[in-house]
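Entries read chain and fold; for instance:
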Amino acid sequence: MQEAGQAVIDLFQMVDRAFAGGYVLALALVCLLQYMFYLFRLTEVKSQRKQDLLLLEDLESDLQCAERDRTLSQLENSILRDVVSESDLGRALEMLLCRYIPDADSGSAAFIQMLQNGEQQVLHCRGVDEEETASLLIGPELLQRLATEPVVVVQQDELLQTPLARMLDNDESSSDPAENGRRELLLFGIHDLEVLEGVLVTSRLFPAGACRDYQIELARRLMASIAGNMQRSRIMRQNERQLWSVREMLELRAITDGRYETPLQMVEEYLHCLRCQLHADQATLYLSRAEDNRAALLLADSPHSDEVPPGKVLNGPEGCPQETVTFDTGQLEQIQGSKGLVLRMSRHGRPVGRLHLVRADQTEFLRAERELAGWAAEYLSETILRVLSHVAVQRQAMQDGLTELSNRRAFEEQLGREIDVARLEGTACSLLLIDLDRFKSINDRYGHQAGDTVLRSVADVLRDQMLRMRSNDRAMVARYGGEELAVLLPGIPLVGARRIAESMREAIEQNSSSCGQQVLRVTASIGLAEFPTTADCREGLVARADAALYHAKQNGRNQVAIPTTTGSFTTEIQ
């Protein structure tokens, strides 16, 4: 007990000495410092933890953005791959519009192409009625903005003044909270060498839920890809047009290189082919007459043969077709209607004619068609002049220079052909040999110039008679030699040929020619023969007609003589 008390006393004494020496204060200060350090470390740990949490949140956000960007990039690459890899522009546009407007009942989009003639054409649309596509036009103000701005946003109030307003009728964006009731159209231009080729008009952006800046940037990249597709498509169309043009040109050249009985047949085939190539309803060719600046109708080709027969045109009285019609140059623009092609044909500055191509439905000719028509007109100009030159040479070789009738060579060739046709078909072929009575006395009394005048006048009379009486296009009048003329009447039997011969004899008798102060008249004797009644070959036919002519002259002249089956001759119709 005493020891315990002594211990307590010693403890108090120690405490007293410690307080007296300042040890307790020092110890308290140390504890305070340790506590303060502990609080500082605790605050620092909390701050570090907070920073770590923020960093973790940033990392998570970055990961989410990276994942979203990766997803969007995959989506973008998928779209770009589909668009770029698609060779057909139409299918590429269709896929693109389906991406922008997955549900055609909740939005609308259209791709409008700018044509070279300044017009606009809706290539594809979605969420728009088909009957309204023709009225979807972009006004000049918006086109001007698209030329300088990558994207043009048009609000509802502005849209109400444009044809594009009808695209909002199918847009439900006002009910979409994400769109904040926005009703607008976005226009993205597609440019090629700074030329506006097309415009994407859409009421929605893609992909849904992405930020607007990204959606717009994606749309711009897609338009750049579409521009490449459009360029490839345009080059392909140009190549196709060139191939088509070359093919059609070769076909037209083949026609001009062919062999035809007459130049008119070649021109007729040429016009028919050109009309079919250009899907025209009528092709009409006019040849220029330089002496009076008028154009003569040469040929009209139309599939409606009852309305416009080949070689004729309906412009006579009461719609009657006429063989040849002339028009003043200024009239040619109106006679074929308000729509069509009028192609002036010339060669080395020399007017050749005009070519008219008309469509009944008034549709315009495409650029490639106009280029082909222009080439065809130019080539036809060259061909016509070449053919006319060739025909002129042939005509000189086959025509009598004085009377402009066929010469004996041409007549004998035609006679041989007609005899072959008559033998093959079992038809008749008549021959008239005409000799002017006492023609030598005219030459002796008035001179050869007067004789030439009489011959030309008689030739005109015979031509006029043939135009009135011939029943087919193969009838022929020729100068057979000297004052002797010949008339070939294929398909006409003896009785009909006798009437024609008598009409010619009377016309020659009534005709008069003037030479200076002299009025000259002549008569004619005519010998007639018929294949196969009076002769069975060409030589025999000529011989029988010549014998009949001799009989007519010996029997008093100015008459028509006919060989009989008995070998004699008569001037009466049997």
